[in-house]
Amino acid sequence: MRKILISACMLGLIAGCSNGEKTARFLIDPPVPAERVANRLGTAELKDVSLPEYAAAGEVAWQTSDGAVRSNTKQLWADNPQRAFTLTLARTISDISGATVIAEPWPLAEPPRRRVEVRVEKALAQADGIYRLSGRYFVADEASGGANQSRSFDIQVPMPDQKPGTVAQVQSQAISQLARQIATLGGPGSSVRTSSAPVVDIFSQPLPPLENF
C-alpha cells in the first residue's frame, strides 16, 4: 500500500511539472502608433539593445518594497527579452516615422545610412508603482557632415499593480515612447557633426588615359 501511495505521489509531481498551463508567458507588443512623425533616420540598423541582467532574463521581474528585484519561474517572457525588445523597437520606430529601421544584422544589399545603439540602464517595474525605462541611445551617421546623436531617455509609466500582465503592458507602452523619442531624435544630449570625409576606394575608380610619349 505504501509503494502505491509513493508511486501515486510521484506521478502527481511529474504531471504537475509537465503541465504547461501552470506557466504563463507574456508578450512585448506595443499598440500601433496613432500619430506619425517626420522621417529623420532614413535607413538605419538597430544594434541589439543592451539590457540589465534582470531585464534580459527569461522571467518577468519586479521590485518589492524592500528594494529587491524578484521574479517567478512560472511567469516568463514569451520570447528572448533582448530579441523581443530590439525587434519591437525597430518595428515601432519604422511604423511611427516611415523610416526603414531594421535590427542587426542588416539584410539589404544597400548599406544603411545610420546606425542606432540603445543602452538601457533600468527597465524595471518599481516598488513605487512606476515602470521606469532609462538609459542612453546613440545615432551614428558616417557620411561627411552627418549628425551624430548622443542622447538620454528616462521614461516613466504608472502601473495600477505589479501583476506580470500589467508589467508586460506598461513595458510595451514604454518601448513605444522610446521609439517616438528616437524617431524624433529627442531627449537631453548633444549632436556632433561627422568631420571626416568618407574614404574613397581609388582602386574602384577608372584610371585616367595614358599620355602619348
TrEMBL record:
Sequence ranges assigned to domain ABC-type transport auxiliary lipoprotein component in this UniProt record: 27-183
Protein's name according to its UniProt entry: ABC-type transport auxiliary lipoprotein component domain-containing protein
